[in-house]
Amino acid sequence: MPTGPGDDSRPSGSPEPTSAREGEAAELVELVHSSARGDQDAFAELYDRTSGRVYGIVWRVLRSPDHAAEVTQEVYTEVWRQAARFDSVKGSALAWIATMAHRRAVDRVRSVTREVARDEHYAVTGIGREVDHVWEGVEQRMEAARVRKALESLTPIQREALTLAYFGGFTQTEIAARLELPLGTVKTRVRDGLIRLRDALGVEA
Amino acid sequence: MNEIHGATGAYVLDALEADELEEFEAHRAVCSTCSREVAEFCETAPRLSVLAAAPPPPPALRTSILRGLSDVHQLPPLHGDVLQERPREVDELALRRSSRRARVLSVLVAAVSVLALALGGAVYSLARQQQAPVAGPSADNSLLAAPDARIVPMVLANGAQVSFVVSKSQNRALFVGGHLPSPGLGKTYELWTMRDQAVTADNLVPAGTNVAQWFHGPIQESTGVAVSIEDVGGADRPTDVQGVVTL
Question: If you compute the radius of gyration of chain B from its CA atoms, what whole number of angstroms results?
Fold first, then answer.
């Protein structure tokens, strides 16, 4: 049975993801496995199913179409190269790809585009407000609503610290300076925020 | 030391500074609680990406990526269980070590010995070569402790300052760049090993700050190593050679 976006009464550690999400996750794993065997069509489908998310997060961190394209290409090249080393026991395919993407985007922003990309203030209210036109599918819109709702259950500081790190690519020290908070507080809020998100969304690790 | 447990969130969001990153990775190697939490957060954090208001990827990017696939050498599956310690994505680490070394390493880590902790620190920080700083010679004590280890600094054709760390006795070499400028759109740095006239493609190196990348290939028999700039995915033969070291 699909769970509605409002149902976050699941105890942590025993998630019941929607069957759609589960099915999607299983299909992505298959696509990675097929890619590992050199199947370029499977890889193309994997790209089609994940590139919106991947390019989105890379673009959001880098704020530059050129850098975003370059890093996205780097990420998918690595996915293809390392597909045989993906282990579905340890996590989902999307997490594997998205983690790689975020890390590379952050790495790039810190080494190349520090001044260019990050002058703008990342207002929390701006996060996820203008996405609906990007996502065509009902599933994705539901997922966006679910994630946004989960994010709203955080305290303002947790939310701000989390979004500055994830969407802004800032280090915890930079976040502490921006929010005028002690470093230890930022670290704690980031972890607490992720715990809250994890529990609201369910763990699918 | 207890405070390090609290770094799981910042770690997964790539928000730790270099020194703490290294400390945390060493800790995570021996802390199952943190390992588990990191794995869970790695599932949670990417779900935020659905909220990344951004334009869709340009169609040309898809074409370019798919066209490049046939030039990319796919890695074989891993054997050994070093990966068990690392719920994160890339296991460039295991590429860099012989499976014998890897097995020895995972046994040590499992034993949670002091030695494992020390080794784990070095190994795990290198596993995150994207961000792990190569703090000079402390980057990999085991490589640098080799009696024949050589550090060869060099300025590449594009002006980047890099170093090669080579030990024939250990059969390993490491490529290090404090600041590796972007090789250009659709381009990548690529490492090569040379044996007399034969040149063999080795690892790819992403641009970035504090980059460290191992050579896959055996170094013992090599007469030289090199780095070049190639199309993304790497090439079979070097075209734009940036620097060469004779061994």
Answer: 19
Residue B101: partners with Cβ closer than 8 Å, 6 or more residues away:
none
In 3D space, the residue among B38, B3, B240 whose CA is nearest the CA of residue B124 turns out to be B38
Confidence of residue B79 (pLDDT cuts 50, 70, 90): low
- Give A126's Cβ-side CA count (13 Å radius): 11
CB pair distance less than 8 Å for B54 and A56: yes
Looking at the complex, report in whole angstroms how far the Cα of residue B12 sits from the nearest Cα belonging to chain A: 8
Nearest beta carbon to residue B53 from set A100, A131, A175: A131
| Contact between A96 and A105 (Cβ < 8 Å) | no
Fold classified for A136-204: Arc Repressor Mutant, subunit A (1.10.10)
SS3 assignment, position B102? helix
How many residues are given for chain A?
205
Question: CB distance from A169 to chain B under 8 Å?
Answer: yes
Q: Is A66 on the interface with B (CB under 8 A)?
A: yes
Max CA distance (Å), chain B = 54
Q: Is the predicted pLDDT of residue A105 greater than 80, yes or no?
A: yes
Tell me how far CA of residue B113 lies from CA of A150, B38, B109, in angstroms.
41, 22, 7
The rounded distance, in Å, linking the Cα atoms of A168 and A127 is 11
| C-alpha to C-alpha distance for B188 and B230, rounded to whole angstroms | 5
**A47 and B65 in contact by Cβ < 8 A?**
yes
Nearest-angstrom CA–CA distance, B94 and B218: 14
Q: Which of the four CATH numbers 2.40.160, 1.20.120, 2.60.40, 1.10.10 does domain B141-246 have?
A: 2.60.40
Each residue of B166-223: pLDDT tens digit? 888 878 888 888 778 888 878 889 999 888 878 888 888 888 777 788 888 788 888 8
Please indicate whether, in this complex, the C-beta atoms of B207 and A167 are within 8 angstroms of each other. Answer: no
Mean pLDDT confidence for B42-65: 93
Boundaries of every domain in chain B:
3-50, 141-246
> What count of other Cβ atoms lies within 10 Å of the Cβ of residue B218?
15
Q: Which of A44-53, A184-193, B167-176 has the lowest mean pLDDT?
A: B167-176
Cα–Cα distances in angstroms (integers) from residue B48 to residues A144, A145, A188, A197, in the given order: 8, 11, 19, 10
Residue range A21-118 in CATH 2.30.170.40 = no
From chain A, pick out residues whose CB is under 8 angstroms from the CB of B64: 73
Whole-angstrom Cα distance, residue B95 to residue B75?
Answer: 9
